[in-house]
Design goal:
Number of strands: 5
Number of helices: 1
Structural class: alpha+beta
Length: 90
C-alpha cells in the first residue's frame, strides 16, 4: 500500500512540473516559430541583443539585417535571434 502511494505522489509531482514548466515553454516556442516564419523583407525587427534593424535579405534560416541609418552596417544572423517583428507598411 505504501509503494502505491509513493508512485501516486511521484506521478502528481511530475504532472505538476509538466503543467508549470514544460507546457508553457512549448507554447511560447510555437508562438515564436510562427512569428519568425512571418518575417519578410522590409520588416523592422528587434534582436535578442537589443538592436533594432530592417531585414534586407533572407534565406531559410538566416536573415541579413541593416542596422541604423548607415547603409554599410549589414549583419547576417539566425532567425532564432529575432525577438519582435514590426511589419512594414505597404
Amino acid at each position: 500500500m505504501q509503494a502505491i502511494s509513493i508512485i501516486v505522489i511521484y506521478a502528481v509531482i511530475i504532472g505538476a512540473f509538466y503543467l508549470i514548466a514544460i507546457r508553457p515553454q512549448k507554447k511560447k516556442d510555437k508562438e515564436h516559430q510562427a512569428m519568425v516564419s512571418q518575417v519578410a523583407i522590409g520588416d523592422s525587427i528587434l534582436t535578442t541583443s537589443g538592436f533594432y534593424g530592417v531585414v534586407i535579405d533572407m534565406t531559410d534560416d538566416v536573415v541579413i539585417v541593416e542596422f541604423g541609418s548607415n547603409k554599410n552596417c549589414r549583419i547576417p544572423m539566425q532567425k532564432a535571434a529575432i525577438v519582435e517583428v514590426d511589419k512594414a507598411n505597404d
